[in-house]
Design a protein that fits this description.
The chain is α+β, with helices and mostly antiparallel strands. It has 21 helices and 22 strands. The strands form seven sheets. The chain has a five-stranded mixed sheet, with helices on both faces. Strands 18-19-20-22-21 form a five-stranded mixed barrel. This is RNB domain-containing ribonuclease.
Length: about 675
């Protein structure tokens, strides 16, 4: 409409007038009308041969009008010049922008790389489209199958497999897990849980390198004059602890706690230590386990009956009449293991009545180590009473422990060498918590762990401790490197040192204990870990994370096998106890689940619920209230069990997938994310 030295006034098709800087004007023309030009230029731009234009373009910088004249001829009109401008702008891989309307052609090698990248992107898009169509049709492409767990839990959101699953889920309007199951990617719920765990925590497999062997003892250890016995389940191969009793009838009893000594077979910072520090714990699950240490190390260190085994022993001297503690001494020695007693074989024999008879001098037939177990039972009750006095209230065992036996198809009994695949028949058994054998071992280990924790602190040696500030709700057990009271156990301090074959924390503490036993006052200079050692803090952090993950996996597989038991036994109804917000706990199975209709009932109410279905992938159990079994008021929360937090934690939280169907943009490149 008008023009000045540096700007002009332009009227748009809408009638609106705007001020435009002259420097921003790329093309002046008298005809056709602007709207006609904008309609005609794009089709002509699409017909321009970029390869030909690139070949004819000069090596130096150029303007688009000059190139339009070269391509269309000297009579190139406004539409053709606009078409060339559009074509150059939409092909940055051929022509690099150098200013308003000015370009320079890309070097040949850069162009070839760009064209190859574009071709790859187009091929990938076509591949994603093909995979999407297969998934929607109910077939799982092999690359998606291979990346299944990465897609679901640790996805590369720029990966074609992930994009195909997201696109197929949106197109089919199905949840990703349902889509993949329908497509055949998930054929076995058990294998899904097992392989997912391996993917997250053992991506390189669960085996050990053949060269990982225990180091031989550097010295000849003195042989203890005891006949020690262990108490474990029949399936236990990592036998960490054993007991001995000496001096019965003499007035002073020497009660020995003997712990397997892998600290003597594993050098700190060596190859075996690196493996143990990476795994941090043995992983337990029904029918199988992944050991922290190689079989050769376990075999060399386990307290196997009939052998003299290297052990770290602590001997407690008690007054036989009053059970007053007279003193304690720690030794590194060879301990003769007389027997490996088994819970599942002896719980029915080693009863309170049998132990009372043994204490009176008449042990029943079939009761091994009757006098020793009778003293252990008497001592255990005494120690428990002392701890309960410190706690301020007695310990209660409201729930049994459950055992899972998996019987392979066609077999009559469990096979220790059999790796479960989900098809086995499961037998769930109960073992009462606080039974004599259970209490004897538990109190002996608490006594040893508490004593060693205090002893190491007196010697000026750092160690890893567990502590609990109080029994108030919400105060949880913590791990640290300084001794502190453990309110839940009623002890001044508590270290983990009695399971060094199965927990890395115990192995670390055992190294410190061995240093204290061998070097005395010089131990702080000789121990592997010095005060304020940063490695200890790293071990605590890593162990807590691994321990939580392993426990969650074990609980998940126990829940899986419990749901399978419901299916196999055809159980349609269960009696249960209400916890909170509709959660109930089965009375005879290790199972916490939601039951519709139980939401308004108070905690502790007994109910019967009907099971309406289960999901083995998400481990969910669907149920509804049938009847209330006790119309009376529920007991107060403090009488309903001290483990409410653990019970609520056992409730299913659902399967947390990392796949996001609501993404509008792809994930940023690693550099951008960083």
């Amino acid at each position: 409409m008008s023009e000045a030295d540096s700007s002009m006034q332009v009227e748009l098709d809408s009638g609106k007038r705007v001020k435009v800087k002259t420097a921003n004007v790329l093309l002046r023309f008298a005809k056709p009308q602007p709207a006609e030009l904008m309609a005609a230029a794009p089709p002509q731009a699409a017909e321009i041969d970029l390869d030909l234009v690139w070949e004819t373009a000069p090596e130096e910088e150029f303007g688009f009008e000059a190139l339009a004249t070269e391509y269309f001829g000297a009579t190139a009109d406004a539409v053709q010049r606009a078409a060339m401008l559009m074509r150059l702008y939409e092909a940055p891989h051929y022509f690099h922008r150098r200013g308003k309307g000015r370009f320079r052609k890309a070097p040949a090698e850069v162009l070839q790389q760009a064209l190859a990248a574009i071709e790859r992107k187009a091929a990938q898009a076509a591949q994603i489209e093909a995979w999407t169509a297969e998934l929607v049709a109910g077939r799982c492409p092999a690359p998606v199958q291979e990346q299944l767990f990465r897609i679901l839990f640790k996805p590369d959101k720029n990966g074609p497999e992930y994009k195909a699953v997201v696109a197929a889920a949106k197109q089919a309007q199905r949840a990703p897990l349902d889509l993949l199951t329908a497509a055949g990617a998930i054929t076995s719920p058990y294998q899904f849980h097992w392989q997912r765990f391996l993917f997250e925590h053992f991506p390189k497999g669960t085996g050990f390198a053949a060269e990982l062997q225990p180091q031989p003892l550097a010295e000849t250890l003195p042989r203890a004059a005891v006949a020690a016995f262990s108490i474990d389940d029949s399936s236990t191969t990592e036998i960490d602890d054993a007991l001995s009793v000496q001096g019965l009838g003499s007035g002073t009893i020497t009660f020995g706690v003997h712990i397997a000594a892998p600290a003597l077979a594993i050098a700190p910072n060596g190859a075996l230590d690196a493996v143990a520090r990476q795994r941090l714990s043995t992983v337990y699950m029904p029918g199988h386990k992944i050991t922290m240490l190689p079989d050769a190390v376990v075999e060399a260190c386990t307290l196997q009956e009939g052998r003299d085994c290297a052990a770290v022993s602590v001997y407690f001297r008690f007054d036989e009449a009053t059970l007053a503690l007279l003193g304690a001494e720690t030794r590194v020695e060879q301990v003769p293991i007389a027997a490996n007693l088994r819970h599942d074989q002896l719980d029915a024999v080693v009863t309170e009545a049998a132990l009372d008879a043994a204490a009176a001098g008449a042990p029943p037939a079939g009761l091994p180590f009757g006098p020793e177990l009778a003293f252990g039972w008497r001592l255990a009750r005494h120690l428990k009473a002392q701890r309960e006095q410190v706690r301020g209230k007695p310990e209660t065992f409201n729930r049994p422990d459950y055992s899972f036996k998996l019987i392979p198809a066609g077999a009559a009994a469990p096979d220790p060498e059999h790796l479960p695949d989900g098809s086995e028949t499961v037998v769930i058994g109960e073992r009462r918590r606080g039974a004599p054998l259970d209490l004897i071992v538990a109190e002996a280990m608490i006594l040893a762990n508490s004593h060693w924790g205090g002893w190491l602190a007196e010697m000026g040696l750092p160690a890893i401790y567990r502590s609990q500030a109080s029994l108030a709700p919400g105060i949880k057990v913590r791990m640290g490197t300084k001794p502190a009271p453990h309110a839940g156990m009623g002890v001044k301090q508590y270290s983990w040192a009695t399971s060094p074959l199965r927990r890395y924390v115990d192995l670390v503490n055992q190294w410190q204990i061995v240093a204290a036993a061998r070097h005395g006052a010089m131990a702080p200079l000789q121990a592997p870990f010095k005060p304020k050692d940063a490695a200890l803090f790293a071990i605590v952090s890593g162990f807590e994370a691994a321990h939580a993950a392993y426990n969650a996996f074990q609980n998940g597989l126990e829940r899986y096998w419990t749901l399978r038991h419901l299916e196999q036994a055809g159980i349609a109804e269960l009696e249960a106890t209400v916890l909170k917000d509709g959660l109930v706990r089965a009375d005879t199975l290790p199972l916490v689940f939601r039951a519709l209709g139980c939401e308004p009932l108070p905690r502790g109410t007994r109910v019967r619920v009907r099971l309406t279905g289960s999901e083995l992938l998400t481990l969910e159990l669907h149920a509804s209230l049938v009847a209330r079994l006790d119309p009376e008021a529920a007991p107060p929360a403090d009488e309903a069990g001290e483990e409410a937090g653990e019970e609520l934690d056992a409730a299913p939280a659902g399967l947390a997938l990392a796949i996001d169907l609501d993404e509008a943009e792809p994930a940023p490149a690693p550099e951008a994310a960083a």
